[in-house]
Write a structure and sequence with these properties.
mainly alpha
């Protein structure tokens, strides 16, 4: 996986976790859901990048 893309996906996942935690702490269900959504998108992109790497080798 390209290092830049991997770092971007990890950062996006961390951002999602922070949003989820903040939403949970303040009782904002919308913010919590947005955080979970960002994490899922990040995980999906990481999976796609790993699959690309698998087929390159």
């Amino acid at each position: 996986m390209a290092t830049g893309k991997k770092a971007k996906n990890v950062a996006r996942s961390a951002k999602g976790k922070a949003k989820e935690a903040t939403g949970r702490a303040v009782g904002n269900e919308s913010l919590e859901a947005k955080g979970r959504t960002e994490q899922v998108k990040s995980d999906a992109k990481q999976t796609v990048e790993k699959a690309k790497d698998t087929f390159k080798h």
